[in-house]
Amino acid sequence: xxTKQKRxxxxxxxxxHTHRKxxxxxxxxxxxxxxxxxYGVESSKYLSIxxxxxxxxxxSGIRPDRDYCLQDSIGRATLLPLKKRHETQSITKNQxxxxxxxxxxxxxxxxxxxxxxTKQTKREIRSLQELSKEEATKIITGLKRTIEWDSERLxxxxxxxxxxx
Length: 165
Description:
The chain has helices at residues 3-17, 20-28, 31-39, 49-60, 73-77, 93-106, 110-121, 133-157.
């Protein structure tokens, strides 16, 4: 994230935190629940620019409110340097973008993604931000092998002269 994006993001955060409806939700103690229902996070510091813009539109009444979770995982990948782990190195922005792209290639939904994370890392992972650099490498390798295996299988399926083993 460059300096202009950081400045723009901070302006959006300031507009949200000074909005009348935000203050009502915060004073009532519902702000973190409101965010969690709609975006899967408990603090607005983990939202992407696109999501912050959407929050501002919802609070202003420009966009209708919803009661289901949507996440901008590619936009949040640009925020990864903001959230750091002290014990291990966290996933890099390029790794996060590559994982998202590979999941789109294999067409895994969120349930299959979580199962794949658990199978590869041997622990429960809810989002890309929880991955370490080494775990992200394991997942990238596993996804690439899955893609290779699928393409190999399709090559044999589409070959009319293939007799089988």
